[in-house]
Amino acid sequence: MNKRQKRAKIIASSLQLFSKHGFYKTTMRDIASNLGISEGSLYTHFPSKMSLATAAISHVTGKLAIDLRYINSKPISATKKIYEFVKSYFSFIQKNPEMVEYFFQVYLSNREIFCNEEDCGFSLAKEFIEELEILIDDGVKNNEFTQENFFIAFSSIMGILGSITFLHSEHVLEKELESYCEEIAKAICRTLN
Amino acid sequence: MNKRQKRAKIIASSLQLFSKHGFYKTTMRDIASNLGISEGSLYTHFPSKMSLATAAISHVTGKLAIDLRYINSKPISATKKIYEFVKSYFSFIQKNPEMVEYFFQVYLSNREIFCNEEDCGFSLAKEFIEELEILIDDGVKNNEFTQENFFIAFSSIMGILGSITFLHSEHVLEKELESYCEEIAKAICRTLN
Amino acid sequence: MNKRQKRAKIIASSLQLFSKHGFYKTTMRDIASNLGISEGSLYTHFPSKMSLATAAISHVTGKLAIDLRYINSKPISATKKIYEFVKSYFSFIQKNPEMVEYFFQVYLSNREIFCNEEDCGFSLAKEFIEELEILIDDGVKNNEFTQENFFIAFSSIMGILGSITFLHSEHVLEKELESYCEEIAKAICRTLN
Amino acid sequence: MNKRQKRAKIIASSLQLFSKHGFYKTTMRDIASNLGISEGSLYTHFPSKMSLATAAISHVTGKLAIDLRYINSKPISATKKIYEFVKSYFSFIQKNPEMVEYFFQVYLSNREIFCNEEDCGFSLAKEFIEELEILIDDGVKNNEFTQENFFIAFSSIMGILGSITFLHSEHVLEKELESYCEEIAKAICRTLN
DNA sequence: TATGAATGAGTTTTCATTCAT
DNA sequence: CATGAATGAAAACTCATTCAT
């Protein structure tokens, strides 16, 4: 296994544990033994626990950004793009629940972990947020979406998706997550229209 | 100062610090010295740090529930109730930013703090959620809101409010929070209608 | 035992172990168990291992400065003061070998421990060095000492004392330390005259 | 580069870093990367970090011994030999400050590094100390130096030189080191006479 | 022989909780 | 009841040394 592969494995393990038990309740020992390696070995690849959290969030938002960028590139209406995004996002949750949970529960919430003087850690998600901005702008230009404040549009999309993600991870939803896909997309579009 | 008042003071102090620095970065010493009392004294009123977090969340959701219950009791349309709720919620944020931040950033995110075998900590917000359910049900019964899945309706309301709260606490909003009130309420209603 | 007494006990224990095994080979656990207290207890009184080293050196140089100040205040010749200082210093070694060993072996050598940006740790010994300067200046003013350069005079006194201290702590001296007192004082005076 | 040359290079690098940052604050990685080689490679040439420290001190005292042996072989008075030794020592400091600093600040001070059950690490400097003994004995035999205890004579020479070396390495001397040469030699001789 | 990732014991430090005063 | 020193069980991180490639 080469260095890049090892890093990827460590990030995957961290993601899993951080999302399950939270950043603070996950110890470096937990991550190491979950991988069957020594604690010291972790430090060969990442200089600190915080750098692990950072690498993990970059990984997650990078993945989300790639999916959204692909959807944005399609020659379809903005409304259709919202549908596709919700679908793609739901399938992403199914395949990588730990990634999305990590995004919402660790990154968005334990801000103190990611913030330093210069950068409040937001730049880590920049790629993804920019792509979302493109999607919204497109919709407004096409007159599909009401000209509206960006922050409200952003909240309508990510707030609703975040909330349903939360309910799903709390196991309070009655049906399969994917069965809400259509309705959620519709709900989001209603807000934007 | 009697026992109840003392408890209230301790909860207020905890809320302030938990919301600012997070649950884990706030020490019992921080809470005590913020109040000018001893650490030992804290334990006369609360048996553990966790119990402080729990009492704090009950306090916050209790307050939110009271406001919403009052709105629900009014002889107005469900749509109007949504407007009133958003307005009341925004004014609540202005007056008690630490309470709302605590709700979203500590309670919803550091689930591991509140969960034990029997209870996943959700019951703490039960009062408030039940009140929200009443509001949604009313709207559906009156045919103001489309008959819809509760979870989606819930996400439309609390997701959007949560997201805008987050953006506000991150200081990325361009205008005063209250100036978004009308638009946010409209956006939520569009989803529900 | 009050707080000041406890601090003094901890400093004494640290001094003993630092001088015997060096700063780096002495662990906080060693210091704590040498005192029969817990590691955490150490941190109630001193915020870090480094602060212990600093408190220890201040303690030692303070003691040395007091002795020398008293000698300086006497109405005797500078040459006689040198004799008295050597005598007092030797008796100090007998009573507190760990203090002097600490001074020479830890303080003078592990400079990296005591240095920070502003202060290179020398100020900790300032009191003592200033008193030594007074003694030398007196001798020069009285025409007892011809050696005018302070640094050479300083080295003649402290270098010779330091070296004999070192040989003593290495157990290579053949006779009792105090039996060298007279000769050492003479040797120092010969250099200064 | 042959094996001996490689060893020499490693010793030089160690000496540099040990004298600058101390034995404990210098890691094997530091030494290796300072040389542009791998950590493992270090262990092909030296079995442990301690063996590096030992080899380094032998190297330094060996160099000093050679210089002093050469001076001792000259057909000149003991007093003149002291002058020559001080001159040679000062020029040695100028050319190899790290060697002398290492001798005084690591070897003489972190005794715990060099000591084991059998040998307290003193033998490493034996060659040099023996040569110094020869010089002192010569002076006594010629009636140039007062018959005196060896340890006091030793301290007069090495103590004064050590102290001035310390002040030099601390950058507290006002003039160039070499400008003190004559006076220091005189001061030492006054003690010995 | 050279490499450098892996190891794991050891170190400082933190902090919720307890309890003697 | 209030206090705050004491506790001790972790936790993050370090680094000399080893060993497979």
Task: Please describe what this structure looks like.
The first copy, chain A, has a single domain, classed as Tetracycline Repressor, domain 2. With 193 residues, chain A is mainly α. The longest helix of chain A is centred in the N-terminal third of the chain and has 24 residues, at 49-72. In chain A, helix 5 crosses helix 6 (97-107) and helix 5 runs antiparallel to helix 8. In chain A, 72% of the residues lie in helices and 0% in strands. Chain A is elongated and about 55 Å long. Chain A starts with a helix and ends with a helix. Chains C and D meet through helix 6, helix 9 and helix 10 of C and helix 6, helix 9 and helix 10 of D. The structure holds a DNA duplex (21 and 21 nucleotides).
Largest sheet of chain A: none
Order of helices and strands of chain A: HHHHHHHHHH
The CATH class of chain A turns out to be Mainly Alpha
Strand residue percentage of chain A: under 5%
Q: Note the gap between the termini of chain A.
A: 50 Å
> Percent helix among the residues of chain A?
over 70%
Structural class designation of chain A:
mainly alpha
Q: Please tally the β strands of chain A and state the result.
A: 0
Largest interface: A-B, 42 and 42 residues
* The CATH homologous superfamily of chain A: Tetracycline Repressor, domain 2
Overall morphology of chain A: elongated
Tally of structural domains of chain A: 1
Chain-averaged pLDDT of chain A:
89
The Cα radius of gyration of chain A reads 18 Å
Regions of chain A with pLDDT < 50 over 5+ consecutive residues?
none
What is the subunit organization of this protein? homotetramer
CATH architectural label of chain A: Orthogonal Bundle
Number of helices of chain A: 10
Classify the fold: give the CATH topology of chain A.
Answer: Tetracycline Repressor, domain 2
GO molecular function, one term (chains A, B, C, D): DNA binding
Protein name (chains A, B, C, D): Transcriptional regulator, TetR family
InterPro entries (chains A, B, C, D): DNA-bd_HTH_TetR-type_CS (IPR023772), Homeodomain-like_sf (IPR009057), HTH-type_Tx_Regulator (IPR050624), HTH_TetR (IPR001647)
Organism (chains A, B, C, D): Hydrogenimonas thermophila
